[in-house]
Amino acid sequence: MFRASVNDQPSFEIDFSGDLPVLNGQPLTWDLARLNDRMFHILYQNRSYTAELLDLNPTEKTATIKINQSIHQIALKDRFDLLLEQMGMSTASLTKINDIKAPMPGLILSLSVQPGDTVRKGDTILILEAMKMENVIKSPADGTIKTVRISRGQTVEKNQVLVEFS
């Protein structure tokens, strides 16, 4: 299941797990034919569309497509993005980053930064083991590490400050 928004308009839900895509809970009956690596022909509700993938950024989960000469910006959120949003972690990229807090109690398995390091958005900061799963904690924005408040092998609590940025 994905939540998608097109051209910053209100989002909709789409699920590709079954035989037919499901859009906002309703089966999407269409005919989709691949013309080449980036172009598709779509028949939907007795109308014909030509879709071209102009740009795809899997890291940011965005795409730019052209449908019948109109360009559309698409942003996707998968179940992990939606979970982070529920945990209140999605707004971190919109503001200046001050610190990284533990999203849940766990054990620090590894630490990839030290004070003074410069990190980019998406760089691995640490690995937190929780409920027998390894959770890679990444930098939500570009920044410089000011303080590392934890060490490898340390147990942490939910919302404990792990790393501070300057």
TrEMBL record:
Organism, by scientific name, is Larkinella humicola
Could you confirm whether the keyword Transferase appears in this record?
Answer: no
Domain Lipoyl-binding span(s) in chain numbering: 84-166
> Quick check: keyword Cell membrane in the entry?
no
Print the keywords alphabetically: Biotin
The name of this protein is Acetyl-CoA carboxylase biotin carboxyl carrier protein subunit
Q: Which Pfam families match?
A: Biotin_lipoyl
